[in-house]
């Protein structure tokens, strides 16, 4: 889709990324020019920022007051609309190949848009709890831009400001 439309984007939020097939697929996406943002709280075996392999991938680890377990997989499909999947599995062989896990599309357009335009960008803006994985495997704290306020995504998520602005029909 990225090759056809040029607007491919992936944002994955999960606890771990160790599955070799998924890592190779993300490397192929980066090599094709897809922007990839990975929010991986724990272990990540992918190396970002390697020229010709993963230069379009950024990996951030967000560890704060709350132990998060959400798994969100966002796919911007070359301008054809975004797809958001929610699920239970981390991107690990044991989860993907040896367990029964759930992954489902978020079909409600209002919630999908809220995650895509508000929640995931908030995670990418965090400057309080975030460390960025370097190509050599080290994590470096995000630096607050001088003159800009610090942003704590977990504090924001716990606030009324982050409340879902839609009413679900049950």
SSE blueprint:
Layout: H1 2-5, E1 9-14, H2 20-31, E2 35-40, E3 57-62, E4 71-76, E5 82-87, H3 93-98, E6 103-105, H4 109-125, E7 130-133, E8 139-141, H5 153-158
Parallel strand pairs: 1-2, 2-3
Antiparallel strand pairs: 1-4, 3-7, 4-5, 5-6, 7-8
Percentage of residues in DSSP E strands: 15-25%
Order of SSEs, N→C?
A: HEHEEEEHEHEEH
Mean model confidence by pLDDT: 87
- The strands making up the biggest β-sheet line up spatially as 6-5-4-1-2-3-7-8
* Cα radius of gyration in angstroms: 16 Å
Large-scale geometry: globular
List unreliable stretches of 5+ residues: none
Walkthrough of the structure:
The longest helix has 17 residues, at 109-125. This protein has 170 residues and is an alpha+beta fold. The chain has an 8-stranded mixed β-sheet, sandwiched between helices. It has 5 helices and 8 strands; from the N terminus they run H-E-H-E-E-E-E-H-E-H-E-E-H. A hairpin with a 5-residue loop joins strand 7 and strand 8 (139-141). 26% of the residues lie in helices and 24% in strands. The radius of gyration is 16 Å and the shape is globular.
